Amino acid sequence: MTDVAVRPLRDPDLPALLEVHKRRNDFGGRWFTNPYAGGKEARWEDLTPAQRWLHGGPWMDPQLLALHVRRYAEAEGAILVAERGGKLVGEAELWPAKEPLPLGAYLGVENLVADPPGDAAVERALLDAAVREAAGRGVRALDIAPLHAGGTPALLTEAGFVLHLENRTVHLEAGRRPKAPEYGVLSTAPTLTDLEDTVLLDHREPADFRLGNLGNEWSSGLLKEVSRPFGALLRVRFADIGVTGSVHTWLPEREAEVDLWVTTAGLGNAPWLRQAAAAAVDHVSKDVPAARVRTTVRSHLVPALRAIGFEDGAEPDPWLRRPITVRNL
What we know:
Helix content is about 25%, strand content about 30%. It has ten helices and 14 strands. About 40% of the residues are buried.
């Protein structure tokens, strides 16, 4: 038996959940006006929601956290909290997703937190509860990207997670921009509906969840000072490519984080992908000038991007899957 109990998050839990995350801020518990660009050290109380967000996401600010929780509720997701002795000691955030194969329908673990970090009993209890939640919904897979959502590798393996996809991140300096082919601009504000027949190449998060993160519409304008979203749907030769992303204005040198969405036909055509990526870079560079473009793709696509000037791509970024047995009643 375990002394950890897991249950759904309730509104009165939000202050305690905020404190759990604040203790885990990305800068050792210190706060700055801008931790990425030499900002001055400051008190948490004196920072704006956007400045707090820079230290670890929406969990660093009460307004953003409340909006984040509402976003999960609207998507019919689930946020589970772990308690020990009446104290909140962890959480798991579960996002329902349905995408083209080989991903299909699954429940994504978007945040797995134990307080203190690495508490095996808390992680196990949350993962067990997540499996039950997925089975109860009739979903056949529970997925996680541990470099982003958290989770101890050994415990994830113990819980039955195996490698499903592998991502790699590459970047392109502005001075190395490739020559673009001719392309047409079909839209400068593609919606998820416009992109539903495409595959998101950056799969560190579910496609709809990631699109919402880059656009930040859920934040009610609280993040407008640190994020400038952009998007386009381009026609390159025989197929379309979706381009979504955000300019990171808080960095010392502005970076454009770009997501590419391609059809299954384009996915297997490396020459077309090179041309489509060059067109995407050209469009983004004209719309939102930045010192570099950064994108994440499936590992086997990295050579196609290196061929047009992208660099890096050495570090694996795994997407793990735990199959769920759904019993027919």
